[in-house]
């Protein structure tokens, strides 16, 4: 069970580490853009959460829960990207459904990334490290 800001930071860094790498030589794609975004968001939020935990301790659930949610959404997007990338029998309807889900989750990722960034930014301003 993840019950601290440090745990949340570790989860985010784990997701960033485990996002499937881009295939070299392939043209730019929405999948590649999303993978780069997932890695950048999870690394930034993960390091930020761990730094915050080093200064403030465990944190309250209301503080670390959005970071865990961010990790969860990022993991789900990364998993779905693998599913839409490789299939035995092409099925356009299934691919469209999965892409719709990915785009919906991406909107949630953006929302959570904004919240976590604002939370960490406010902390930096309060501590005078901005």
Structure overview:
The chain has 130 residues and is mostly helical. The chain is built from four helices and no strands. Helix 1 (5-18) runs parallel beside helix 3 (61-85) and helix 2 runs antiparallel to helix 3 (61-85).
Radius of gyration from the CA trace? 16 Å
- Would you list the SSEs in sequence order as H and E? HHHH
Major sheet? none
- Which regions are unreliable across 5 or more consecutive residues at pLDDT < 50? none
Strand content: under 5%
| Quantity of strands, as a count | 0
Q: What's the rounded overall pLDDT mean?
A: 90
Shape: elongated
User: Helix count?
Assistant: 4
Helix content: over 70%
Structural class: mainly alpha
Euclidean distance between termini CA atoms: 32 Å
List keywords for this structure.
78% helix; 4 helices; elongated; 130 residues; mainly alpha
């Amino acid at each position: 069970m993840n019950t601290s800001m440090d745990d949340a930071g570790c989860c985010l860094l784990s997701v960033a580490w485990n996002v499937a790498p881009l295939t070299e030589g392939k043209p730019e794609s929405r999948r590649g853009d999303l993978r780069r975004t997932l890695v950048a968001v999870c690394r930034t939020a993960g390091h930020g959460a761990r730094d915050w935990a080093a200064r403030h301790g465990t944190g309250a659930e209301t503080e670390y829960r959005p970071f865990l949610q961010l990790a969860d959404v990022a993991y789900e997007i990364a998993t779905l990207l693998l599913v839409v990338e490789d299939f035995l029998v092409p099925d356009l309807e299934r691919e469209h459904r999965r892409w719709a889900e990915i785009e919906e989750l991406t909107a949630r990722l953006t929302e959570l990334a904004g919240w976590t960034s604002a939370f960490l930014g406010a902390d930096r301003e309060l501590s005078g490290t901005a």
